[in-house]
Amino acid sequence: MGGRGSARGGEPVGMVTGDSRPDYFVFSVDPDAIPQLYDYVYVEALETPPGEEEPVRVKVLAQIRGIRRLALGVSPEHPWPVLRSMALPRGSDTVVAAARVLGYKWRGRIYLPRRAPPVGSWVYLAPDELLVEFYSVEPRRRLHVGSLISRPRVSAYLDVEGIKRHVAIIAATGAGKTWASVVLIEELLKKGATIVVLDPHGEYTAMKRSAHKLGPDYANAVRVLKVRRDQEGDIQYRVSVAEMSAEELASIAGVPSKATRIRSAIYGAKKVANWLAEATGEAKWRGLRGIIRVLQAAIDAAEQARLQGGGLDRFVSALNQRLRRLAASEDVEKALKAVAKLDAVAAIDEGLARGVRRLWLSLGKDSGPGYDALRYLEELRRIGVYGTRTVPIDVLLEPGTVTVVNLAGLRAEVQDHIAHNILKRVFEARLRHARGLGGESYPYPVVVFVEEAHRFMPPPQKRQTRSRDIAATIASEGRKFGAYLVAITQRPSRIDPDVLSQLQGQVILRIVNPRDQEAVRDSSEQVSQDLLDNLPGLNTGEAVVVGPLAPRPLMLRLRDRVLDYGGGDISLVDAWASTREDARLVEDMRREALEAAARLLGEKPRSLAEALEAITGLEFATEAVEQGLRLLVRGSAWAAYSSSTASINGEVNVNGRSYEVTISLADRRFECSCGARRPCSHAAAVAIRALLDGVLAGAQEASADSLWDEFLQ
C-alpha cells in the first residue's frame, strides 16, 4: 500500500499482518498508539458497491473485538531467576488486535465488503466524524439512547422503525435491563407512542411521580392501572367473569386440577348464577359476588337436604327457597321446580339443569368442597380485578401515554391471566382497526413492554401459560397490525425459542450464564461468537444492539434516564441497621399491649399470647404472636369491634397485600383470608391492634373478664 506517510486519514495505528477475511482481520498494533477494546478502526480498500461498474476507494469500518500482547524472546517457561536477571528492553513484545468488519457506507447505505483487506494494509483509528456518519439515523426516526461504548462524544441512536420487528432486552440481574427499558420508554414517549407496561414487581410505577421531569407536556404522560384494590394506581383494571369459563375461573383462583369436586362446585354455581342474571335481568349475578352467593345458598341447601334425608329433589327445594329470597323472582321458582323432575329437564334451560346437578354432585356427600370453593373465590374477589364488566379499551390505551399495569403481589396464575387478557385485547383492537371490523378497536400502533418475560412466555414443554400463545401471535403477526412486543428478561434460556427468535431487535447487556448466552446466539444471526464472548465483560449500562434497531451491531453505553423506577439493589447496611430499630419497636409495642391487656382484664398476663387467649378464647402460638407484632411494625392494620356480632373485625396490610380477619368472641373462632385453620399471625396482629386502640373497652370488659376467669380456673 505504499509508505506510512502516503496513507490518507492521518497516521496509522497498525498494519494488517495476520488472518484477513472480508468480515474479519488481524493487525499488528503500533505500541505507541494502542487503541482500546471495542474502539473503531478502518482500512482503505477498493470495492464495487451495488449499482457501480468500477471499483471505488472506500473506508471499511471495523471494531476491535480482541487485543493481546505476544512475548518475544521470553516465555512463561523461563525460570524466575533467569527472568529476574534479564533486562527486557521496551518493545520486546508485540501487540496484536482482531477486528470485526462492520462495512462501508456508500450513497447513504451500508454494505459489507466482498474482498479481504490485503496483508500490509494500514489500519487507522476511525475519526468521530466517520462514526457519526456510519451510524446515522434519520432525525425523525432517532431514539437517543446513549453514546458509543468507546466514544462518549458520539451519540448512539436506535431506529424507531426497528420496533416493528419487536425487541428483546436481555441482561443478567443488575446489569441494567430496567434502565435500558426506561430509556427506551422515554424516547418512545417523545415520539407520541401508545405504550403499555406489564409490571410484575411494581418497579415502573415510580415513573408516574417523575414524568414531569421530561417537560411540562409529559406531566400526565404516565398512569398506573392497579389490579389489586390495595395497590398503588390511578384506575382499577377489571376483567369480566362472565367472559370466562368455569374451568378458567377455577384455575385462576388456584384450585388444583385434581380437586374435581371443588371445580365442580364452581362450575355449578357459575351456571346457576348466569341463569339468574338472565332470569332477573341483573348483570351483578355474573360477577364473583353473585357466584359466591349462589354457592353459599347451595351449601346451606345441601346441608338441609342431608339433614332431611333427601336427595336431589330436597336439594332443589331448599335451593329454590334461598335463591327466591336472593333474587325475588317467580321465574327462579318455576325453573328450579322443573329441575327436580328429571323427565322434564329437557324442557328447561340446559345450562341451569347441568349447574344444579353439578352442585348436588359436589355437595351431596359433604359441604367441604363447597367451603373450599368459597375460600378460593373469596380470595380472588378480594383482589378486585374480577367483576361483571371489562374496562373499555380506551382506559388501557391512550396516545402519547405509558400505562403501567401494576401486577405486584399477585399469584402467578392471576398475573398470567391478566397479561393474557391485555395482550389479547391490544392485538385484537389493532387487528379490528386495520381490517375495519366492528367491536373494540384502537386507531394507533401500540408497544407492549413485558417485564420478567420468562414468566409469561416459557417453552410449552417446561410450563403452560395463557400468555405464551398470544405473545407468539403478536411476535409473528403483530407488525402487520401495529401491535409490537418488547420482552425484558434476565433468563432468555427460559423463554420459548419460537417467541425469542421473532424478537429481531435485541438490546443485550452483560450476560454470564452460558445457557443464556447460547439462547441469545441461537435467537439472532447477527450475534457472532466474538461478540458473545465479550458479553460477560460489559459494565453495567453497556449494551450490544443487533437487528433492525441499528444499521450494524452497535455497542453503546446507556445515557442517564430521566424517569424513576424501583427495584434497585437494597443497601445491606441500611437494611440490617433497621432490624435493630424494628426490634426496639416490637418490644415497645409488646409492653403497651400487655399494659392494655392488664387494664382490660384486671390482672397482668404472663405473656401476650396468654392475654390474647384470655380475651378471644383462641389459642395463639407464640410464633404467631411474635410474627403479628412484626407485621404491625412493618405494615399497617386496623381493628373494630361489632357489638351486634360480638366480634373483632380488621385487616392487615403488608408488602402490598391485605388480609381480612374476623375473630368471633361469642363462639371463639376466627376466619382469615389467608385460609389458615389455626390462629395465624394476621389474626394476632388484628387482636393486638384492637388491644392497642382500646376498641374492646367499656361494654366488652364483662365479656373479657368472664373469659379471663374461665382461663384461670
Structure description:
The protein has 713 residues and is α/β, with parallel strands linked by helices. It has 23 helices and 25 strands. The strands form 4 sheets. Strands 9-8-21-20-19-10-18-17-11-16-12-13 form a 12-stranded mixed beta sheet. It has a 6-stranded antiparallel beta barrel with strand order 1-2-5-4-3-7.
Quickly give the structural class: alpha/beta
- Estimate what percentage of residues fall within beta strands: 15-25%
Averaging pLDDT over every residue, what do you get? 86
CATH superfamily of the largest domain: P-loop containing nucleotide triphosphate hydrolases
In CATH terms, what is the fold-level topology of the largest domain?
Rossmann fold
Domain module count: 4
This entry's quaternary arrangement is single chain
Distance between the termini: 107 Å
Radius of gyration from CA coordinates: 34 Å
Supply the CATH class of the largest domain.
Alpha Beta
Supply the CATH architecture of the largest domain. 3-Layer(aba) Sandwich
Instruction: Tell me the number of strands.
Output: 25
Spans where pLDDT lies below 50 across 5 or more residues? 1-9, 341-347, 698-713
Number of helices: 23
From the spread of the alpha carbons, the general shape counts as elongated
Largest sheet: number of strands, sense, barrel closure: 12 strands, mixed
Helix percent reads 25-40%
In terms of topology, how is this protein built?
Elements: E1 14-21, E2 24-29, E3 40-47, E4 56-71, H1 80-85, E5 93-106, E6 109-111, E7 122-125, H2 128-134, E8 142-148, E9 151-159, E10 167-170, H3 177-190, E11 194-199, H4 207-210, E12 222-226, E13 235-236, E14 239-240, H5 246-253, H6 260-280, H7 288-307, H8 312-327, H9 330-340, H10 350-363, H11 368-383, E15 386-387, H12 393-396, E16 402-406, H13 412-435, E17 446-450, H14 453-456, H15 466-481, E18 483-489, H16 497-500, E19 505-508, H17 514-523, H18 529-534, E20 542-546, E21 554-558, H19 572-601, H20 608-616, H21 622-634, E22 636-642, E23 647-654, E24 657-664, E25 669-672, H22 681-693, H23 701-712
Parallel strand pairs: 10-18, 10-19, 11-16, 11-17, 12-13, 12-16, 14-15, 17-18
Antiparallel strand pairs: 1-2, 1-7, 2-5, 3-4, 3-7, 4-5, 5-6, 8-9, 8-21, 19-20, 20-21, 22-23, 23-24, 24-25
Helix pairs in contact: 5-6, 6-7, 6-10, 6-11, 7-8, 7-11, 8-9, 13-15, 19-20, 19-21, 19-22, 20-23, 21-22
